[in-house]
């Protein structure tokens, strides 16, 4: 990186800087004329100088010059104007100069802004580019939040300074010198006074501001450290809660905030002291002008027009001067920030940029062997992990790496996957050093997966296909307006030194996954998901999701057939009672009271339970049917039973999992509410109290909670109210509530609710698992499985994939590696979160599945279970950083060595 910010700016923007400097130089001409014109107006037409006689005239706009070698040249003879005409003409010229100076400022500031934004874009991109090229070990020493803060916030002032770096001193300095020169021309002594004050400001103020710069640097460092500390708290929240250290973290944060407060308060005090002195010096000069200039005018040594012009010129002097001093402070401030950025990002050795060059053409298969020669690895503390290991792994070979934790097996696999760099020795393929090979080869032909997983915020599908997004494969189709917009953005990107790659292109290399395009990519994905045993998880996510029938048309069209097929299947297997279907004329005992009353779904977030309860029509229905008092009485009994049964239980008792209508924290609240409402009628309770009690009844399910509160009479009353509700429902509610219909799809309901069209009976053991298994088979039979799978793949995984379980994350990480169909697969204990039985099954699935594709890729697997090594061609046994044993399974299992000990 360039160490000096000024050199960095000049290197990247010198042509633009030269142009804007030329514009600034041209702007000084009308700026100077605007100072002289007030004197001409006051002395000429206003005071009458040159218009002594009646009808006297003067020449306006006479343009003539004495040129060397040519002599006197007259360009325009001018116009003869009387006193009034001259006043109007000079005033109009003054107005024109004001407009012209304003246009110059507008152009200069706009150009500076665009130049600054381009530079900010350039430096941010270059910093992120450097992050992408940091050596792997460097990421163990830095905090991601600090890096993000520097790129996002700390370089922001550098963009604003770019436009001012050379233009501001030229423009502001030129304006200040022009105004000062004009004052000196009018009166030497007044000019010397102004020059003296300017000199004091130029010397004293910058010296005082050095303290401001140091305080600003401290503020920046403490703020960045705070950002990094907050990032640590967010990432380690589980550790904090698990060790009761939340108050320690509060104390740490309070201490850091106190330090920042102290620095900022000191900075404000010093800042306003500097401002006070600067303003005082600026205001002293007009006092001297009025006093001394007025004295000279009284003596006749200075005319009134000159005094007015001097005061007018000085009025424009403090502004540029103050801004020039501010510019100098900004220059020093951003140089300090840039120096910190330089120190943070000037990391050596960086990955060579050629290694990460874009490659759009298909990459040929790796046919050479992995040759590891005298490999040594250390961690960032210098502890030796692998010590002088040499081995050759051939193409198509399956190699099991075994060894206890800390044996060096994991570090060896990381080196093969280029996750760590060797201290000494080499890893080569076809004679080429692995570290010198382009990522377009290693990232496509070598797949690496470990137990450490990370997923970007987005859908399951986008993260699963992430390993196939190497380069734009197709150009997007734009209309005329979009094409012009893209062309403009591309031009701006090029000027800012950014690549012009189009993110809207389709980046997925479908052929690498064995598909021809997005239409059949699911056929390539599904075997991979089946192999890592995550298909059922994704199917469950799909069943809990709502379906966009505009996208998944087939599901919407076949949902009625699916319902019928499910009923037939359940009847054939003698499971009729496992699902209780919805019936408009009957109460569904397996559904809540609220679900039975509504008999439909709400279009959230436009309609919620609270909004529905507050709707006048809903409240009127409750009053007319008498359900208010019935459900209030029911809610009281629910509250009494729950409080009586559970008030002595600890909050984490498993019984609370059965209470859908109340949490452990609600028990004391309802206990107090029951005491308050004791012996009080429905009419005596407040609306809030009624709502709190009735809410309990809405979530009640008789077969689940078993309080014996639902009589046949009350169930019939709820069904009757349901019919009345839908019969006279107003238009505004009808748009937001979708009634259940056995003959159509309900978009606002989940896929499972649509297929079931009912509720699963709570009395049946494992009913939910059996239903999901049957549904999966039905989707397959009706050729809808891929559609359902695609709905599950639309699930948002959250930040870092944290909406998935650790088991799901490790399975998905393994599936992402498998989808690339590489020549070498390196698996570094990728399934440590799974139990051993499932690990074994997935391992067998993968080895059998990969070797059915015909090209038999090489598989290098660091195993947790040494017995699985029987499936591999060769075994490498690591111990204490060295290669202790090597051979095939029969050889090592019969030999009385370390491997036999691991098997026992």
UniProtKB/TrEMBL annotation:
Asked if Plastid is a keyword of the record, the answer is: no
* Keyword NAD among record annotations: no
What InterPro entries does the entry give? ABC1_TM_dom, ABC1_TM_sf, ABC_transporter-like_ATP-bd, P-loop_NTPase, Type_1_exporter
Q: Where is the ABC transporter domain?
A: 370-902
Q: Which residues form the signal peptide?
A: none
Please give one Pfam family short name. ABC_tran
Q: Tell me the keywords, alphabetical order.
A: Membrane, Transmembrane, Transmembrane helix
Give the UniProt subcellular location, in the record's own words. Answer: Cell membrane
CDD domains in the cross-refs: ABC_6TM_exporters
Lipid bilayer topology: Multi-pass membrane protein
Give all residue intervals belonging to the ABC transmembrane type-1 domain: 75-326
Q: What is this protein called?
A: ABC transporter transmembrane domain-containing protein
**Organism whose genome encodes this protein:** Rhizobium aouanii
């Amino acid at each position: 990186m360039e160490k000096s910010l000024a050199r960095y700016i000049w290197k990247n923007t010198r042509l633009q800087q030269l142009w804007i400097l030329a514009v600034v130089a041209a702007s000084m001409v009308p700026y100077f004329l605007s100072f002289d014109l007030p004197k001409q107006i006051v002395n000429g037409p206003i005071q009458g100088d040159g218009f002594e006689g009646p009808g006297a005239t003067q020449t306006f706009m006479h343009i003539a010059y004495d040129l060397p070698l040519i002599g006197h040249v007259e360009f325009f003879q001018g116009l003869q104007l009387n006193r009034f005409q001259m006043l109007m003409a000079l005033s109009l010229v003054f107005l024109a100069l004001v407009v012209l100076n304003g246009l110059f400022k507008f152009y200069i500031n706009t150009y500076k802004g665009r130049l600054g934004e381009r530079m900010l874009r350039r430096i941010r991109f270059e910093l992120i580019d450097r992050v992408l090229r940091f050596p792997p070990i460097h990421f163990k020493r830095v905090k991601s939040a600090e890096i993000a803060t520097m790129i996002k916030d700390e370089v922001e002032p550098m963009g604003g300074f770019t436009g001012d770096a050379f233009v501001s001193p030229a423009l502001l300095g030129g304006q200040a010198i022009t105004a000062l020169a004009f004052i000196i021309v009018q009166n030497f002594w007044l000019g010397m006074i102004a020059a003296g004050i300017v000199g004091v400001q130029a010397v004293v103020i910058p010296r005082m501001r050095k303290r401001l710069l140091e305080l600003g640097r401290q503020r920046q460092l403490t703020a960045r450290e705070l950002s990094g500390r907050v990032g640590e708290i967010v990432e380690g929240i589980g550790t904090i809660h698990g060790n009761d250290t939340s108050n320690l973290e509060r104390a740490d944060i309070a201490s850091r905030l106190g330090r920042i407060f102290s620095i900022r308060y000191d900075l404000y005090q010093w800042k306003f002291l500097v401002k006070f002195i600067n303003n005082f010096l600026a205001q002293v000069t007009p006092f001297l002008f009025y006093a001394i200039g007025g004295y000279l005018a009284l003596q006749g040594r200075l005319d009134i027009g000159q005094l007015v012009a001097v005061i007018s010129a000085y009025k424009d002097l403090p502004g540029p001067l103050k801004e020039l001093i501010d510019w100098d402070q900004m220059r020093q401030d951003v140089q300090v920030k840039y120096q910190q950025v330089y120190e943070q990002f000037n990391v050596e050795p960086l990955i060579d940029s050629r290694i990460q060059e874009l490659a759009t053409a298909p990459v040929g298969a790796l046919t050479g062997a992995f040759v590891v020669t005298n490999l040594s690895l250390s961690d960032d503390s210098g502890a030796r992990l692998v010590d002088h290991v040499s081995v050759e792994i051939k193409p198509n070979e399956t190699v099991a790496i075994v060894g206890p934790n800390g044996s060096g097996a994991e570090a060896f696999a990381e080196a093969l996957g280029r996750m760590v760099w060797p201290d000494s020795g080499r890893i080569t393929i076809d004679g080429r050093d692995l570290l010198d090979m382009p990522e377009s080869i290693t990232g496509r032909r070598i797949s690496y997966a470990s137990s450490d997983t990370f997923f970007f915020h987005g859908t399951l599908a986008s993260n699963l296909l992430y390993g196939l997004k190497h380069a734009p494969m197709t150009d997007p189709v734009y209309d005329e307006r979009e094409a012009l917009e893209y062309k403009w953005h591309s031009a701006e990107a090029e000027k800012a030194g950014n690549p012009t790659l189009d993110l809207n292109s389709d980046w997925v290399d479908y052929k690498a996954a064995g598909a021809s395009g997005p239409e059949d990519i699911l056929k390539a994905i599904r075997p991979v998901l089946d192999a890592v045993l995550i298909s059922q998880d994704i199917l469950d996510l799909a069943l809990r999701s709502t379906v966009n029938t505009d996208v998944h048309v087939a599901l919407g069209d076949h949902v009625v057939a699916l319902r019928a097929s499910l009923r037939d299947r359940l009847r054939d297997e003698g499971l009729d009672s496992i699902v209780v279907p919805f019936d408009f004329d009957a109460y569904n005992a397996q559904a809540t009271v609220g679900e039975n009353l509504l008999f439909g779904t709400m279009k959230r977030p436009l309609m919620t339970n609270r909004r529905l309860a507050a709707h006048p029509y809903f409240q009127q229905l409750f009053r007319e049917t008498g359900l208010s008092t019935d459900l209030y009485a029911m809610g009281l009994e629910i509250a009494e039973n729950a409080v009586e049964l559970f008030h002595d239980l600890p909050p984490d008792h498993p019984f609370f999992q059965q209470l859908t209508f109340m949490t452990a924290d609600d028990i004391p609240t309802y206990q107090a509410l029951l005491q308050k409402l004791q012996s009080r009628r429905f009419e005596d309770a407040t609306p809030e109290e009624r709502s709190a009690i009735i809410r309990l009844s809405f979530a009640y399910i008789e077969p689940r909670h078993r309080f014996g509160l639902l009589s046949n009479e009350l169930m019939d009353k709820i069904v009757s109210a349901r019919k009345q509700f839908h019969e006279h429902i107003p238009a505004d509610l009808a748009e937001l509530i979708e009634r259940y219909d056995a003959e159509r799809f309900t978009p606002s309901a989940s896929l499972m609710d649509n297929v079931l069209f009912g509720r699963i009976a709570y009395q049946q053991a494992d009913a939910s698992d059996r239903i999901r298994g049957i549904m999966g088979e039905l989707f397959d039979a009706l050729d809808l499985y891929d559609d359902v799978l695609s709905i599950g793949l639309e699930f948002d995984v959250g930040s870092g994939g944290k909406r998935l379980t650790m088991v799901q994350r490790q399975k998905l990480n393994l599936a992402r590696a498998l989808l690339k169909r590489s020549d070498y697969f390196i698996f570094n204990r990728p399934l440590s979160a799974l139990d051993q039985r499932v690990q074994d099954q997935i391992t067998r699935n993968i080895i059998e599945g990969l070797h059915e594709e015909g090209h038999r890729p090489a598989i290098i697997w660091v195993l947790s279970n040494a017995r699985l090594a029987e499936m591999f061609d060769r075994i490498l046994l690591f111990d204490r950083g060295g290669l202790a044993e090597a051979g095939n399974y029969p050889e090592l299992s019969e030999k009385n060595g370390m491997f036999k000990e691991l098997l026992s």
